[in-house]
Request: fold
Amino acid sequence: MTANLSDQDTICSISTPPGQGGIGIVRVSGSQALSLARKVFVDGSGRRLKSGRGYTIRYGKIIDPETRAVVDEVLLTVMRAPKTYTREDVVEINCHSGVVIVRRIMELMVSLGARPAEPGEFTKRAFLNGRIDLAQAEAVMSLIAAKSDTALRIAMQQLGGELSLRMKGLKEKLLHLLAEVEVSIDFSEEDCHPIGSAILEKRVREILDDLGGLIETGRQGKFIEEGLVTAIIGKTNVGKSSLLNRLLMEDRAIVTPFPGTTRDVIESTVNIEGIPFRFLDTAGFRYSEDPVEKEGIRRSRNSIEKADLVLMLFDLSSRPNEEDRKIARLARGKEVVLIFNKKDLVDDEKREKEFYNELIEEIRPKATVSTCLLHENGVVKLKSVLSGLVFQGGSGFNESVVVTRTRHLHALEEARKALNRVMQHSQEGMSEEFLSLDLREALDAVGRITGETVSEDILNEIFRSFCIGK
Ligand SMILES: Nc1nc2c(ncn2[C@@H]2O[C@H](COP(=O)(O)OP(=O)(O)OP(=O)(O)O)[C@@H](O)[C@H]2O)c(=O)[nH]1
Ligand SMILES: [Mg+2]
Reply:
């Protein structure tokens, strides 16, 4: 997929976020980058840029070539191809970050012949020019979007090429296998030893194990990248908002002794052991004629629907009843953690069992925790239960590589399906031609992750989700 883009147009963009700030950066990449800079830049002594020496920073001014007006005082960074982000000539103009200044410099570059870059176009060029593969390009985006230290660490690993290396290993094994199977097709009539089905199946099983391990990390990976939507639900006054506040360690939601306090959904993110949990505090369920409260309750139901995890609260100081069952029914099919709150009022295992027995017919909770949210450390146990659910028993990852992108996960699943077909066809004694087709499909799927076998449409779609200027 590498292409020589030296004859392509020169692109430019504002690479820093809009608004006032310390510095703003206008970035230019392409064969015209340096000549454009020469037209607008003069150094401290008023001289034009002569040498195009790379990796230099020059102090000077940007001058409008038509009006000779000074636009801003800047630092100009020159980087020469091929050792640049895009592998093309790159010029960066560090100016004062005012909305008008950066836009003015950008407009100047465009008027002189540069084209405004599309989202992610600098990174796309780095990929097309062969500096990084597609998985690494996507890691750049994950790096920028990282919501926790763990997400950052994984994105850094992927940018460093660890996922790509793992894919390379998989591809080599698949290619080796494919070569052996195809040799069997070509020389089946002659005195040649085709790969026996036992050996073939053993090797395919090894690759399947490898794929299985990677796919397994995808569940956690998704949560690390996107966070885990976690709805806090229950009757009014059971302590939902108190729970949110305890988790956040601040008074985010209003807590009062009066039922029906929370009316709208309140969302806040907390990092628990590197996983961003997006908690939704909701309006308590009860019968109400009040239109505002009714709307709040409708939103509570919606929150359950979109949640990856539901924290269902009950008040131990009351007895379980049909209403509690109804609430449990709302979260059927969801991953649920039961929380028995106000343990300080009734610390009785019998009461907890009563609740449990009432609810168990409706839901199968992943865990049960009892809490007293009046205590400052009332959520310590709950937090460890929550992270334990994501890491399923262990803390942290067993795999050195974690798959965080849905696109990668789908490709790995397709490779697995194709290899499962190879196993099945081999066991059924089908001919090598069939095996070879599915092996090629597995290879193709793995290649899509690093970008060797990806279509132009998919490529455009991937880079469209990048931010402008990256
Ligand atoms: N004794 C005791 N009181 C608690 C506990 N947790 C919360 N409360 C109290 O219960 C009352 C209701 O708490 P909230 O957090 O507002 O309850 P909620 O579920 O958000 O209520 P709504 O928003 O009305 O649905 C407040 O007076 C809290 O101080 C607890 O563990 N023990
Ligand atoms: Mg509330």
The first strand starts at residue 11 and ends at 14. Residues 240-241, 253, 261-262, 281 surround magnesium ion (ligand 2) (CB under 6 Å). The chain has three domains: 11-130, 140-222+402-451, 227-373. Residues 120 and 371 are 47 Å apart (CA to CA).
